[in-house]
Design goal:
It is a single chain. This protein is α/β, with parallel strands linked by helices and 156 residues long. The chain has a domain of 96 residues. Helices cover 31% and strands 17% of the residues. The protein has three helices and seven strands; from the N terminus they run αββββαβαββ. The longest helix has 21 residues.
Length: 156
């Protein structure tokens, strides 16, 4: 009398397709996320290089990035305009700061990314325009040039 029949033992293989699909979706998600952090850079603005430039110690709490192109026009959120035309946009930024974060323009940091061929006087004009609206903190962007010769002042 036969009680139990022999059963065939087969190696079970799992389908890895869903796992691979999920991996690629996660990779795509993080690539898009990284691109959003780069979206505040205007590709037409070529920053000047400086041996004194260094990365910020920590990120700014409430940054407002304003670009200045080669023709000395301000670029804010992709819109090009003369410096004198920034007023309504700065007012909108102030309202946004107040609504979202409950702070005024004095708590924000205006990050100026000026083209290397833009005039220094026009950068000062941009800073003055922002100061008219209550902005107090400014940061200028440049590319760090580690190969530049560092000059030191000889002791007296």
């Amino acid at each position: 009398m036969r009680l139990a029949g022999k059963t065939k033992t087969e190696v079970m293989e799992g389908d890895l397709t869903p796992m691979i699909d999920m991996t690629f979706q996660l990779i795509a998600f993080f690539m898009v996320l990284i691109n959003f952090s780069e979206s505040e850079q205007e590709e037409t603005v070529q920053l000047p290089d400086s041996s004194l430039a260094k990365p910020a110690d920590q990120p700014f709490d409430h940054p407002l990035i304003i670009h200045m192109d080669q023709e000395n026009r301000a670029i804010l959120h992709g819109l090009r305009m003369p410096i004198g035309g920034l007023g309504p946009y700065l007012t909108k930024e102030i309202r946004s700061l107040e609504i979202r974060h409950g702070v005024g323009p004095e708590s924000a940091t205006v990050i100026i990314r000026a083209h290397r061929l833009s005039q220094a006087g026009r950068v000062q004009e941009l800073i003055k325009k922002c100061q008219e609206f209550g902005f107090e903190n400014f940061a200028l962007r440049a590319i760090e040039n580690v190969d530049a010769v560092k000059y030191t002042v000889p002791p007296n």
